[in-house]
Amino acid sequence: MLAVKSVNVRDNFKEWCDKISMGETVVISRPRNENIYMINEAEYNALQKAKRNVEYLAMLDKSDEELKAGKVVVKTMEELEAMEN
To answer: What is the secondary structure of 37-74 as a DSSP string?
Structure first.
């Protein structure tokens, strides 16, 4: 991970983009600790996938809790088939 001031990124944008595309993460320091991270597309996609996985696992945990608490609806196959029509 590299840290750089925003003025350096602005002055050498292509070079920083090249480093990022090669897998480097760049932290752009800004006033009042409002830093920005620049990452490549593969890293972004991995983070988004991890986020979706966490959200999905939380949904499964909630469903499991509801099941254990008896908050379920029981349907027969005939009732389910009738719902399709």
So the answer is: EE--HHHHHHHHHHHHHHHHHHHHHHHHHHHHTT----
Exposed e or buried b for every residue in 16-54, given b needs 16+ CB within 10 A?
beebbeeeeebebeeeeeeeeebbbeeeeeeeeeeeeee
- Reported as half-sphere exposure (CB side, CA atoms, 13 A), residue 28 has a value of 15
Q: Place 85 in a pLDDT band, splitting at 50, 70 and 90.
A: confident
The predicted model scores a pTM of 0.69
Q: Are 27 and 3 in contact (CB under 8 A)?
A: yes
Among 37, 17, 40, 20, smallest CA distance to 29 is for 37
Asked whether 59 and 35 are in contact (CB, 8 A), the reply is no
